[in-house]
Amino acid sequence: MLVPNALITFPAARQGNGEARRWYADGGATAIVLSKRGMLLEPHPTFGPFEYRLLALNVTASEADEYARRHGFVHMRELRSRNEIRR
After folding, report:
1. Cα dist. 49→12, 62, 70, 79 in Å?
2. Which of 65, 73, 74, 87 is 20 to 30 A from 34, comparing alpha carbons?
3. Dist. CA 67–CA 60, nearest whole Å
4. Structural domain boundaries of the chain?
5. What's the whole-model pTM score?
6. Are 76 and 68 in contact (CB under 8 A)?
7. How far apart are CA 24 and CA 19, in angstroms?
8. Neighbouring C-beta atoms of residue 49, cutoff 10 Å
9. Average pLDDT of 16-33?
10. Nearest to residue 54, comparing CAs of 35, 39, 72, 38?
């Protein structure tokens, strides 16, 4: 896991790098996201984000789980694209 030295934000619309998992704090006011390309992100706002803050790069699912637990994000939701959902 690589943690940036500076605050980095970018617009939410990034093709091919959608959300794979989300962890919510109690109450759902804040969340962190693991992208499909291994970026750990903080969405702003939490629901319907227009930008993300980069927390770390090259993050595995187990590293993201550990980070989430250590920082109080206890409710995990795995996200799938519409193409992955069986009809």
Report:
1. 6, 24, 23, 15
2. 87
3. 11
4. 20-45+55-77
5. 0.83
6. yes
7. 13
8. 17
9. 90
10. 39
